[in-house]
Design goal:
Layout (H helix, E strand, L loop, with lengths): L14 E2 L2 E2 L1 E5 L2 E5 L19 E7 L1 H4 L14 E8 L3 H4 L8 H4 L4 H11 L2 H9 L3 E4 L3 H4 L2 E4 L4 E3 L9 H6 E5 L4 H21 L4 E5 L6 E3 L5 E3 L3 H21 L3 E3 L8 E2 L14 H24 L1
Parallel strand pairs: 5-6, 5-7, 7-11, 11-14, 12-15
Antiparallel strand pairs: 1-2, 3-4, 8-9, 8-10, 12-13
């Protein structure tokens, strides 16, 4: 139960990450509005020290970076991200654990090895079962960019060309690869999505499932401020059609809430910490998403308290 987790959610300068908020109290029910600076005397104390709110991410850097102090310096005032499946496929999420030899992991970057270990140990589902986070946030980059594969022993893994596919383990054990964009993949994905959500609701029934509605941008800003199109912008648009199909299905059938803060002029930029790429957005995007999540949590808190 969220109440009263966000009684101390407002920052000292009267803004949340640069966006001004107002908090009103009426019979312990909290409403918010983005219409001016709040009165500091109205800031309430979090009497049970229940912040931060627990989060799990099943998605990619575009979601995980919201809970990264390099992108959102004050996110930890509100949330803690306890576990993530980065760039993973939902087909893989529901499969059994697997083991990549340490010799394979030792030759890749430490961050890559960490992500491979997270997938092979199914860490995010274990976290959800044990910690019962308030929110699980999904995006479907992995099922748009990479797809999945079945190993010789029947295990399903993400066909991640940047990570697992580079290992001898993958090359020696892969049986069948499944590529996004086909009816076969969509059928497998919808079944995987249903099973994933059923498992979350079984082990953590009060967890709310959020869809982060994102897509590839097709333009980026140079260091000189010039706007350019990606050389593969047509390909990215095609991937977006598929991604939109996954988002629409998940939003209709499974998501408790959808957060979409994309704007028509959203783009990448050359100064991004991870480099120019279709889901490496300009940095103010992350603050806008975080503000939307805070608003959502406040509404949930108010509703939970009213029903308590």
């Amino acid at each position: 139960m969220l109440v009263p987790k966000l009684r101390r959610a407002l920052l000292d300068d009267g803004k949340i990450l640069g966006v001004p908020f107002v908090c009103f109290m009426k019979k312990h029910i909290y409403d918010i509005a983005i219409r001016g600076r709040y009165n500091k005397g109205m800031v309430l104390q979090n009497s049970n020290n229940s912040l931060p709110i627990k989060i799990a991410v099943i998605g990619s850097c575009v979601t995980r970076d919201i809970f990264n102090s390099s992108f959102c310096p004050d996110y930890s005032r509100f949330f803690t991200c306890g576990s993530s499946l980065i760039q993973g496929s939902l087909l893989s999420l529901n499969s059994k654990t697997f083991e990549v030899p340490e010799n394979d992991l030792s030759i890749v970057q430490s961050s890559v090895a960490k992500d491979i270990r997270s997938e092979m140990n199914r860490e995010v589902m274990r976290y959800i079962q044990r910690q019962r986070p308030e929110y699980v946030i999904f995006d479907f980059f992995g099922d748009t960019r990479f797809g999945a594969a079945r190993l010789n022993d029947g295990t399903i893994v993400t066909r991640n060309e940047w990570k697992l596919c580079k290992t001898d383990f993958y090359r020696q054990n892969v049986d069948v690869e499944f590529f996004p964009g086909t009816d076969e993949y969509f059928n497998k994905w919808t079944s995987a999505a249903q099973l994933a959500v059923e498992n979350i609701r079984h082990y953590s029934p009060e967890t709310r499932i959020i869809l982060h509605d994102v897509e590839f941008v097709t333009k980026y800003r140079t260091k000189n401020g010039e706007v350019r199109s990606f050389a593969n912008s047509a390909s990215l648009s095609g991937l977006n059609n598929w991604w939109s199909k996954l988002n629409a299905y998940f939003a209709e059938h499974f998501a408790d809430d959808v957060i979409c803060v994309r704007t028509p002029d959203l783009m990448s930029f050359e100064g991004h910490p991870w480099g120019v790429y279709g889901v490496h957005y300009e940095l103010d995007y992350h603050a806008h998403f975080l503000n939307s999540l805070i608003r959502l949590a406040l509404v949930d808190s108010r509703t939970s308290y009213a029903n308590y």
